[in-house]
From TrEMBL:
It comes from Algoriphagus aestuariicola. InterPro entries: Sugar_Epim/Isomerase, Xyl_isomerase-like_sf, Xyl_isomerase-like_TIM-brl. Residues 29-270 form the Xylose isomerase-like TIM barrel domain. Keywords: Isomerase. The keyword Isomerase applies. GO terms for molecular function: isomerase activity. This is Sugar phosphate isomerase/epimerase. It holds the Pfam family AP_endonuc_2.
Length: 276
């Protein structure tokens, strides 16, 4: 069964970006539950930012699960990436993601590596080949940790304007010979795919065996149904590959968080839900 999720940014110093709900955990959980979402995807300051038992109690109260946890705060707030030429920065990036893996694992949720993969071979940074080596080494270590803690690790291909390394799903297929761990999955973000992939539904069919999570946003990164993405064949492709994870709204809160959440759950029910 494909499940719905909505994103919550809990970093009070941030006020813009592709997250539906903002800052208030209790209010966000309440609204997500009232609309009928199955889970929430959390963006936090660190893996130690929330009281685990309190969060567990509130999730149980509202009947929600944690779909995934984002690690992007490591890059946005601290400038950490896994491919930085500075060894200490790479070590700190590994430590940050490790904490996020452990936090998410307490709820059976995977951690997402997106912006923390960094940019490869630019300026005074490491050459492309060296950066690739740093990235693979990090995935081995973090993938093994996630495996030991009972969750997959998610890698998100980003569009060319945000990252120059991992931009398309086929790259993950090419990465397999370099990885011993088989605990790393790919995140299919429909917004990034609209920029980079030639055919979204065919790409999902071609590389579906690797997909562990889906980000649900339209071509303009507004909630699905507010851009020009042809969602019907994409939904059909996900069903055809037997996908049973989350379709999570990492989208701008346009025109406002409540309307964005309502549009998201409406679109989810149109394409995926058998309950309505």
């Amino acid at each position: 069964m494909i499940r719905s999720a909505v994103t919550i940014n809990l970093i009070d110093t941030m006020s813009s970006g592709p997250w539906i709900y903002w800052h208030d955990l209790e209010e966000s959980l309440r609204k997500a539950a009232e609309l009928g979402f199955d889970g929430v995807e959390l963006f936090t300051r660190s893996g130690n930012d929330l009281n685990v038992e309190h969060l567990r109690q509130r999730l149980d109260h509202y009947g929600l699960l944690v779909a995934a946890v984002g690690t992007g705060a490591g890059k946005v707030l601290h400038g950490l990436t896994l491919t930085d030429p500075d060894l200490e920065i790479r070590k700190n990036a590994l430590s940050f993601i490790s904490e996020m893996i452990s936090f998410g694992a307490k709820f059976g949720a995977p951690a997402i590596i997106g912006s923390m993969q960094g940019n490869w071979g630019l300026g005074s940074g490491p050459k492309m080949e060296e950066a690739f080596g740093f990235f693979v080494e990090a995935l081995e270590q973090l993938g093994d940790q996630a495996d030991q803690e009972g969750v997959p690790l998610l890698i998100e291909p980003l569009n060319r304007y945000e990252c120059n390394g991992f931009n398309q799903l086929f790259v993950f297929d090419n990465l397999q010979p370099y990885l011993k761990t088989r605990n790393v999955k790919v995140l299919a973000d429909l917004f990034h795919m609209n920029i980079e992939e030639e055919n979204l539904s065919q790409t999902i069919r071609d590389f579906g065996k690797y997909i562990g999570h889906v980000h649900f946003a339209d071509s303009n990164r507004r909630p699905m149904g507010m851009g020009h993405t042809d969602m019907a064949p994409i939904a059909e492709a996900l069903k055809n590959i037997g996908y049973s994870g989350y379709v999570s709204a990492e989208a701008f809160p346009y025109p406002n968080p409540d309307a964005a959440a309502e549009q998201t759950i409406k679109a989810f029910r149109e394409y995926f839900s058998t309950k309505y």
